Structures are given as C-alpha cells and as structure tokens.
Amino acid sequence: VVDILAYIIKPMGAYIPFLTLTSILSGILTGIIWFKIKNVHIDKIEKYYPIFFMVLGSLAGAIHLMTLLSDKSFSFKIMNILGKKYIFVLSAIEIITIFALIVFIINIKLKDNNTVKHIYEDYMKMILAIGIPGIIVCTLNTYILLMFIPGLQGKSFMFLWIPRIVEEVFMIVFESYAVSLLLRVYESVVLKISN
Asked: Transmembrane ranges (predicted)?
C-alpha cells in the first residue's frame, strides 16, 4: 500500500510492481518465521548463530587467502564465479562475519544482566525473523533492479548486491534491537493495562 501511495503522491521514476511484491513477501516471511521461533529455546539459537558465521567467515577467508597466494588460474575461476570485484565480495563477507560475531559477544555479556535479559532473548530470535527475509528480499530486489533499470543493465550482480547487502546486514542488527525493545515496552504496557 505504501509503495503505491508513494508513487501516486510523489512519483520518482517508474513504478516497479515486483518491488511491492517483494516488500509483501518480506512482511509475510518475517511473520511466519517469528511465529515459528518465538517459543524456541534461546540455547539452540545461541549454539548455531556463531557456528554459521564462523563457517561463513572461514570459507570467505580461505578463498581470499587462496586467491592471494595461488596462481592466476585460481583467481580467474573465482572471478568468473563472483565477478571482477571478487576481492570486495570476499572482504564484505569477512566484515559481516566479524560484525556478527562482535554483536553476538556483546549480546552474551548483556544476557547476564537481568534487566535486559528478555530483550536479549527477543533480539536473538528477532535477528533471524528479520534477517532471513531481509537478505532474501535484498537479493531479489537487486535482480529486479538489474532487470528494470536501464542504467544498471551493464553492471554485474555482485557490483550492485555487495553494498546493498552490507547495508542490509547493519539495518537487520539495528531493526532487531529496536523491535525487541519495542516488543518489551509493548508487553509491559499491556501488562499494566490488564492489571
């Protein structure tokens, strides 16, 4: 609704209905994932979150190291898979991994504080509920933009996707904290009203 109203009130370029559909998909996926994981015990998430990012970062770091130390044929193969700016792709994945692990360590420290423990638990679940659809939609939107905007048609997918996904990851962390905090405030207000 917001996409359509924004286009009617203040059009800025062509309206691309597929972006509206991906926005709807993001909302639906977030709701479904939150519904499925809101009652999952936090220990499962705490266990797999760092493992996922350590494996991801290790793979990116190993490929990065191999491209720097090996012959040109390996670098050429990686370039064919990831695009000409493959070093940026690998570096972005490494930065995202480091950032995700730092956030995880900070959250573990916050977990010990009883006043923010509930926010921490909601955050660890919310980062999945917001993060998975966010990354999927960011990737789909990048493909859509490459298809529908003539000025981008000569660009590679990775050229456009890397800055968008890095921004998306930072926004996922911020939105997850904000929504977790608002959820806790909402629950405390509802509790006060019901009593």
From this structure: 12-35, 47-66, 86-106, 127-149, 169-186
Q: Which pLDDT score is estimated for 97?
A: 85
Predicted TM-score (pTM) of the model is: 0.75
Closest CA to 163 of 103, 109, 85: 85
The amino acid that residue 134 corresponds to is: G
Would you state the pLDDT for residue 76? 66
Three-class HEC string of the chain = CHHHHHHHHCCCCCCCHHHHHHHHHHHHHHHHHHHHHCCCCHHHHHHHHHHHHHHHHHHHHHHHHHHHHCCHHHHHHHHHHHCCCHHHHHHHHHHHHHHHHHHHHHHHHHHCCCCCHHHHHHHHHHHHHHHHHHHHHHHHHHHHHHHHCHHHCCCCHHHHHHHHHHHHHHHHHHHHHHHHHHHHHHHHHHHHHHC
Q: Which amino acid is at 49?
A: Y
Closest C-alpha among 128, 141, 111 to residue 34 = 128
pLDDT (0 to 100) of residue 78: 64
Could you state, in order of their start, the residue ranges of all structural domains in the chain?
Answer: 41-188
